[in-house]
Amino acid sequence: MAESVGIVGAGITGLAAAYVLSSKYNVTIVARDLPGDLGTNWASPWAGAVFHPQKHATKAQQEMQAKSFKFYWDLAQKDPSSGVKFYQMTEYRDDQSDDSNIWYKPLMPDYNVIPQADLPSGVTLGLKYSTVAMNPLLLLPWLKEKLVAKGVKFVRAEVKSIGEVRTIAKSKIIVNASGVGAKQLAGDESVGPVRGQTMFVKTDFSELVMMEGSEYTYIIPRAASGGVIIGGIKSDRVDAEVDIALKSDILRRVNRISKGAFKDVDLNAVTDIVGFRPGRKSGIRVEREGDVVHAYGVEGAGYIYSFGIAEAVKGLIEGKSFKAKL
C-alpha cells in the first residue's frame, strides 16, 4: 500500500506538490481555501501568474525555476484548457545596461536583446523571449480536477497546528505549503503578507510587458478572459482597501511601457484586485524538519517556482540531498 502524505495549503505550491507526489503516494490536501474560492485571504487566485524568471536566485533556485518552466511550457502545448498560454515577453530594466548577469538566457526560447535605440525613455536594458502566462481562475480548478482523478483527497479545514493536519490526513509525513499560515504552523516569525494591488482591464492588447529596477510595472494577458492584469506594487500595508491614488500611478507607468496603449482606460470601469502574497523576510524555505517538509516563502513568485519546489519536496521526502538553505 502506498505511503500517505498530507499537504497543508491548496495554493499553487500545495497543488504542485500534490501533482508530483500523487503518482507514488496517497495524498490528502488540508486547506482553508480551495480552488474555486475567491477570498482575499490567499494569493493564488489573484496572482499575475506569468513565468518571468527571478533574476536574483541561487543555483538551487534557478534549477527549481527551470523545472517549473518546463512543466508549464509542456502543459501549454498539451492542454490549452488549463489556462496556460504562450506569449512573447518584453522585459525592461533600468538597473543595468547589459545582459551579462542574466542567468536565464539559455532557458528562455527566442531570447534576444532589444537594440538601445528601440527602448523607452529611461530604460537601459530590454529583452525579448517566449514564455507562458497562466490564468489562475482556470488553472487552479484544472489542477484540482486532475488531482481528484489521481485519487488526491481535499479536506476543507482551518488548522492551528501540524498535528491537526497529521490527524486529518492520517499521514506521518506532512508538506507545509501554508504560505502566510507558516507563521503559526512553523513558528516562523519572518513570514508575513505582502500586499499587492492590480487592475483587470478589458482590452484587445495581448502583449506581455514587464518593467523592473527602480519600479515594478507589468501588463499580463489572461487567457480566455478578454483582458489583461496591470500593476503593480509591493507594500507592507495589510488592509484590503483599494488605493485610488495608486490606480492612477499604475496606469501612468503602464502607458509609459506600452506606448500609451491604455491612455483611454476609465479607472472607474476596471476591476480592482487586492491580494496578499505569502512573503518571508529570509526568503524561500524548502527543507525537511523531521517528518515535515517546509515549502513556503515564495512571495509573488509562486507560479514561477511551484513545480520546481514540488520536485524538491519529493526529493526531500525520499531522503535525497537538497540544499536546505536557499
Residues in helices, as a percent range: 25-40%
Topology-level CATH name: Rossmann fold
**What distance separates the N and C termini?**
34 Å
- CATH superfamily label: NAD(P)-binding Rossmann-like Domain
Write the layout of secondary structure elements.
Blueprint: E1 4-8, H1 12-21, E2 26-31, H2 59-78, E3 84-93, E4 112-113, E5 125-134, H3 136-149, E6 153-156, H4 162-169, E7 173-176, H5 182-185, E8 191-202, E9 208-212, E10 217-222, E11 227-231, H6 244-257, E12 271-280, E13 285-289, E14 292-296, H7 302-317
Parallel strand pairs: 1-2, 1-7, 2-6, 3-9, 7-14
Antiparallel strand pairs: 3-5, 4-5, 8-11, 8-12, 9-10, 10-11, 13-14
Helix pairs in contact: 1-3, 1-7, 2-7
Binding site for FAD: 159
GO molecular function: D-amino-acid oxidase activity; FAD binding
Cofactor: FAD
Short description:
The protein has 326 residues and is an alpha/beta fold.
